[in-house]
Amino acid sequence: MAVAPRILVIILAGGEGKRLLPLTNDRAKPAVPFGGSYRLIDFALSNFANAGYLKIVVLTQYKSHSLDRHISQTWRFSTLLGNYVTPVPAQMRRGPYWFLGSADAIYQNLNLIGDERPDHVCVFGADHIYRMDPRQMVEAHVESGAGVTVAAIPVPRAEAKAFGVIESDADGRIIGFHEKVDEPPSMPGDETRCLASMGNYVFETQTLVDVVTPPGVDQQRTDIGGDVIPALTREGVARVYDFSTNDVPGQDEHERGYWRDVGTLDAYYAANMDLVAPVPEFNLYNDAWPVLTDQPPLPPAKISRGPGGEPASVGASLLCQGSIVSGAHVERSIVGPGSYVDHDAHVVDSILFPGVRVAPGARLHRCVIDKNVVVPAGYRIGLDPEHDAERFTISDWGIAVVEKDRTLEHP
To answer: What predicted TM-score, i.e. pTM, was given to this entire model?
Structure first.
């Protein structure tokens, strides 16, 4: 019987997340709430937990307090067999400077690899929404004998110029990497689609150590996508893994290949809205491959009439634990843990983070309300674009975003 390879997982969670401002004003991007009850990082961590890869380090950097606390409070494995999830801040082991990029983050933390001595290292991002069984990618990597395997997802050729596109031969060997070009190469045998890099990698350990270690002065490779993968492609040791072939237990066929990069406000909003569709594109209710997170000791969600007997109406929405809808109308929305929507308020096509209070008669349409915001009685958001632009961050799609702890007052 073959011995399973020793796997170390490195989650890259040090990105600044500027395109998600103001949601990242006070938190790291992987700590941004998603789907009401979750944080973005929970999706990557859940994939590895479900797969049984239980030695995980999370490299952090910017505004990492809430992320560190979430990991320490939520992600605890039994230490009996040496399993762990641990956040690792920038330690400046190589000098007095921050991480210069994803490859430099690994170079500055090579001691973690030396301590664990794995056969292979999974290097994954912390802020994408998807389900994946990483064991299948590792198996494909080991069988191919590659130095690195890059996960990729087929996308329509018309959309591919927004991604880094992998050019491969019929055997899956990467022969070129094209970063956001106007005419990206198509997949072998399919002129209508291209293979877009997901930013997830499996490395043979010594290959990773060698490629991130600078060969000389001023020759440091700082970024995995921009420097490391092209270098290993030139050496002929890089291969591609087609994510659309990944078979996740309990997943419906229409979900196969679902992956969302939520790096912008509009992409983040759209991925949340995927959850509330009648037949959701991404199904949270998969007991065979659950998305795991902290479950605070809150009471069940409650839907009730208002104090004057006003009826409540809720449709196509997620109501998280501890939330209350009291005589209000909620449609195609996500109401976060501990949030309260009072009578005669309307919340439509919107996302409420934990602890939001919506007072009587308020109207919220196509907006994102961050934690602990109190929306005053009769207040309007999302109904007057010009007025909203004077008060809030507005996305390209016109989504109004209200920052955390904002005090809202009538003009």
So the answer is: 0.94
